[in-house]
């Protein structure tokens, strides 16, 4: 049975299946979900700060050291959809617990690495652990909160993502000021052990699919994402021959995967969900939002250094208001996401974000720190307003039994957007000698495009 809202037709959820938890049960279960989420997001943000030290200590070039970050993100993105599908079969709580355990083991391997290859492989394993957590994170929230309060749970989820992004660089700098780089991985152990204990005790049992695991589809999905990501990275860094060859291999894998998945009852790449126009539109809006955010996040440190002539310490402080704005607005919007459609809230949020980027774009190079900071905070508040309603729209447009696929696709839209934004930055830095403000203009354009698409979803989804 379906219902119609301003975002288009939406599936009604079974009242028993999605009754949610209450009281202490909800607090404990949500604490477990958020602690695991914080573990995954925080470690990704911390590692960026340590790249220069890792490059020097392991005798690697800066370009090669970047793979400490890329390996995590690419493994995470490649495994999200297969693991979301697996979670529907083994239970979302069980997969999350396994992810925390794998993340813990990989953190130890990272800390003990003696060369860049070992560290890169350990980071890839850590990315798989993070994918176990992220692929089922929102699906678990769907079973913890009742339908009428789902927006609150998703907003709280967004708040902790913002906190992880905000705390990561500061915590990383603090650790590196008193200890060597392996300690950014050792610090994961107490957090992971606490998350594992809480998850084991508090996460709810969820219904399981009895459809067998699609091994061939899983392998093709991983190959499709991985080869395409590596190939595009090569192209954006002007390595045209090998980049093109690997990209073509990735495209061929995608063609094989989509043909193979066409007749599957619960496909790993959720083509059945993407055939639902409201779901597809919400994913597209989410993708565009994260392309815009990473065009800003990746390029802004270079903009502040080259155009505004700020030092490393000041750069960190001037970027922090973005995360503060995201986290603060995610908390505020928790009371609105269940009452107003995403076609209103997310559209306004992305328009505010685009306006913030525009205000930064037109700043003179002698602007004060305050001028930069409040515009950054303004853009971050818009992004915090955009995320929870759009994430809620993705989840409520999926039918009962497909929570895993919807949760995985939500994370894919986020990570694919972040990866695409980073690739655009690499391309602009390769093409233009002074691309700092060009990246801000591109971020503004993409965010505005997402806002327009979000505003029109009530008409396009009909």
UniProtKB/TrEMBL annotation:
<dbReference type="GO" id="GO:0022857">
    <property type="term" value="F:transmembrane transporter activity"/>
</dbReference>
<keyword id="KW-0812">Transmembrane</keyword>
<feature type="transmembrane region" description="Helical">
    <location>
        <begin position="279"/>
        <end position="302"/>
    </location>
</feature>
<feature type="transmembrane region" description="Helical">
    <location>
        <begin position="340"/>
        <end position="363"/>
    </location>
</feature>
<feature type="transmembrane region" description="Helical">
    <location>
        <begin position="183"/>
        <end position="203"/>
    </location>
</feature>
<feature type="domain" description="Major facilitator superfamily (MFS) profile">
    <location>
        <begin position="29"/>
        <end position="459"/>
    </location>
</feature>
<feature type="transmembrane region" description="Helical">
    <location>
        <begin position="215"/>
        <end position="234"/>
    </location>
</feature>
<feature type="transmembrane region" description="Helical">
    <location>
        <begin position="407"/>
        <end position="429"/>
    </location>
</feature>
<keyword id="KW-1133">Transmembrane helix</keyword>
<feature type="transmembrane region" description="Helical">
    <location>
        <begin position="240"/>
        <end position="258"/>
    </location>
</feature>
<keyword id="KW-0472">Membrane</keyword>
<feature type="transmembrane region" description="Helical">
    <location>
        <begin position="369"/>
        <end position="386"/>
    </location>
</feature>
<feature type="transmembrane region" description="Helical">
    <location>
        <begin position="98"/>
        <end position="117"/>
    </location>
</feature>
<dbReference type="InterPro" id="IPR011701">
    <property type="entry name" value="MFS"/>
</dbReference>
<keyword id="KW-1003">Cell membrane</keyword>
<feature type="transmembrane region" description="Helical">
    <location>
        <begin position="123"/>
        <end position="145"/>
    </location>
</feature>
<feature type="transmembrane region" description="Helical">
    <location>
        <begin position="435"/>
        <end position="456"/>
    </location>
</feature>
<keyword id="KW-0813">Transport</keyword>
<feature type="transmembrane region" description="Helical">
    <location>
        <begin position="32"/>
        <end position="54"/>
    </location>
</feature>
<protein>
    <submittedName>
        <fullName>Transporter</fullName>
    </submittedName>
</protein>
<feature type="transmembrane region" description="Helical">
    <location>
        <begin position="314"/>
        <end position="333"/>
    </location>
</feature>
<dbReference type="Pfam" id="PF07690">
    <property type="entry name" value="MFS_1"/>
</dbReference>
<dbReference type="InterPro" id="IPR020846">
    <property type="entry name" value="MFS_dom"/>
</dbReference>
<feature type="transmembrane region" description="Helical">
    <location>
        <begin position="66"/>
        <end position="86"/>
    </location>
</feature>
<feature type="transmembrane region" description="Helical">
    <location>
        <begin position="154"/>
        <end position="177"/>
    </location>
</feature>
<dbReference type="GO" id="GO:0005886">
    <property type="term" value="C:plasma membrane"/>
</dbReference>
<dbReference type="InterPro" id="IPR036259">
    <property type="entry name" value="MFS_trans_sf"/>
</dbReference>
């Amino acid at each position: 049975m379906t219902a119609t809202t301003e975002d288009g037709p939406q599936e009604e959820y079974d009242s028993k299946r999605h009754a949610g938890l209450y009281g202490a049960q909800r607090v404990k279960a949500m604490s477990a979900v958020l602690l695991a989420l914080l573990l995954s997001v925080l470690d990704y943000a911390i590692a960026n700060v340590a790249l220069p030290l890792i490059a020097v200590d392991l005798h690697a070039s800066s370009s090669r050291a970047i793979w400490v970050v890329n390996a995590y993100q690419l493994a995470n993105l490649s495994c999200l959809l297969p693991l979301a599908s697996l979670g529907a079969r083994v239970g979302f709580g069980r997969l999350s617990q396994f992810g925390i355990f794998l993340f813990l083991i990989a953190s130890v391997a990272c800390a003990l690495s003696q060369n860049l290859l070992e560290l890169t492989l350990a980071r890839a394993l850590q990315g798989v652990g993070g994918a176990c957590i992220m692929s089922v994170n929102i699906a678990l929230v769907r079973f913890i909160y009742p339908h009428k309060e789902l927006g609150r749970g998703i907003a709280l989820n967004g708040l902790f993502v913002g906190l992880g992004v905000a705390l990561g660089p500061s915590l990383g700098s603090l650790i590196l000021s008193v200890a060597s780089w392996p300690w950014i991985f050792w610090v994961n152990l107490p957090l992971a052990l606490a998350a594992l204990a809480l998850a084991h005790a508090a996460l709810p049992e969820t219904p399981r699919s009895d459809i067998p695991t699609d091994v061939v589809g899983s392998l093709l999905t991983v190959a499709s994402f991985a080869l395409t990501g590596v190939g595009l990275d090569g192209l954006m860094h002007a390595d045209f021959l090998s980049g093109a060859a690997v990209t073509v291999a990735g495209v061929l894998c995608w063609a094989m995967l989509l043909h193979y998945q066409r007749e599957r009852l619960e496909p790993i790449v959720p083509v059945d969900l993407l055939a639902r126009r409201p779901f597809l539109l919400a994913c597209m809006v989410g993708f565009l939002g994260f392309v815009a955010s990473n065009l800003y996040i990746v390029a802004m440190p270079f903009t502040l250094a080259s155009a505004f002539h700020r030092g490393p310490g000041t750069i960190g402080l001037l970027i922090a208001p973005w995360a503060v704005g995201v986290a603060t607005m995610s908390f505020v919007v928790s009371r609105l996401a269940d009452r107003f459609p995403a076609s209103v809230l997310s559209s306004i949020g992305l328009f505010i974000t685009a306006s913030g980027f525009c205000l930064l774009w037109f700043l003179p190079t002698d602007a004060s720190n305050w001028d930069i900071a409040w515009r950054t905070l303004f853009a971050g508040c818009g992004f915090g307003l955009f995320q929870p309603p759009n994430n809620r729209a993705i989840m409520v447009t999926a039918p009962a039994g497909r929570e895993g696929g919807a949760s995985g696709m939500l994370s894919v839209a986020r990570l694919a957007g972040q990866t695409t934004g980073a690739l655009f930055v690499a391309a602009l830095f390769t093409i233009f000698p002074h691309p700092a403000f060009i990246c801000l203009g591109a971020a503004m354009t993409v965010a505005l495009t997402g806002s327009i698409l979000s505003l029109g979803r009530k008409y396009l989804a009909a």
